[in-house]
Amino acid sequence: MTRLSGETALVLAWIIALISSLAVLFIGEVLGQTPCVLCWFQRAFMFPLAVVLGLGLWWQDPRVGRYGVALALGGAAVALYHIGLYVGLIPEAIQPCKATGPSCTDDNQVVFGIPIPLMALVAFTMIGVLSAISLKEKQT
After folding, report:
1. CA–CA distance, 59 with 48 (Å, rounded to integer)
2. Is the CATH number 1.20.1550 carried by domain 6-135?
3. Percentage of the chain surpassing pLDDT 90?
4. Of 6, 37, 127, 133, which one has the fewest beta carbons inside 10 Å?
């Protein structure tokens, strides 16, 4: 089995972050789905990932993966909480979304039959793992 190089892992992490960022912009701006409060918090972690990882690749910074891990952990934590709301594990009384705004738990949170919080969790997990892999290589 071929081992994934640190640079390849970072390129893959950056591609996932870039596609995820563009996808949520498409969902919001083209499809017109207003994001809920938790979606905004997840975006606050995803958008910088696309920029930071991209700049780290451009500048050939072998340690940029540590920022990828940190941002991915934060975003994954919010996405995990969001999934808890979506599936009903977290009581409705502590939901952060307002009654007048978009809901964290309705069909507005589903794209192609997959809940947006689940997509976000998978993306953040993949970015975090790939960023960590990039740090495993011996740094010079």
Report:
1. 16
2. yes
3. 52
4. 37
